[in-house]
Amino acid sequence: MLRDKNLVPLSRQHQHALALCVRIDRVSPISDSDLDACQAEMARHFRAEINVHFAAEEAVLFPVARGFRGLNPLVEELLSDHTWLRKHFADAEARKLSAEEIAAFARRLSEHIRKEERQLFERLQQLIEAEEFAAIGRKLNEALKDANESCALRSEAGHQRPVK
After folding, report:
1. Which of 22, 41, 97, 107 is deepest in the core (most CB within 10 A)?
2. What are the structural domains of the chain?
3. Contact between residue 114 and residue 51 where contact means Cβ atoms under 8 Å apart
4. How far apart (Å, rounded) are the C-alpha atoms in residues 94 and 92?
5. How far apart (Å, rounded) are the C-alpha atoms in residues 25 and 19?
């Protein structure tokens, strides 16, 4: 299903987070010498974008979804994922994660995003009328205004460059 324009900002951020997961997967198994850089990238991505993203979903989208009884178990699961992911982002900030924990983090983040895109977003698009979706979109845009696009790709020289 085509993504409703009011959810596109969240979907764009999901793409950025999936890019982080792909980068982690590409360097796995992560060597001890790369652990610090990998965790630094995770922490940077969280501070720049994901923290604001989670807060916007929790303040705007999840309360709307809770209005549909059938979506409550999914919302609870997504909130549990947010808690788990926040802990791992904090551990990355403190440089406490092992290579195996980073790989598990990337898998969990990727699965979480796919749940939101394929289950929550799809279902909300079926249940919510266009006028209400427009109001949700305005609230999401306001909630996301402080996020920075944090997707970064490595250049040929191995340095990171932001992707806009």
Report:
1. 97
2. 8-162 (1.20.120.520)
3. no
4. 5
5. 10
Question: ∠10-45-20 over CA atoms, to 5°?
Answer: 80
Dihedral, 7, 10, 13, 14 alpha carbons, nearest 10: -90
Strand partners, 153: 161
**Tokens matching residue 121:** 């977003």
- Residue-wise pLDDT for 106-148, tens only, equals 999 999 999 999 999 999 999 999 999 999 999 999 999 988 7
Rg for the chain, CA atoms, rounded: 16
Give the HSE-up count for residue 61: Cα atoms under 13 Å, Cβ half-sphere.
31
Q: What is the value of pTM for the model shown?
A: 0.87
Who contacts 156 (Cβ-Cβ below 8 Å, separation ≥6)? none
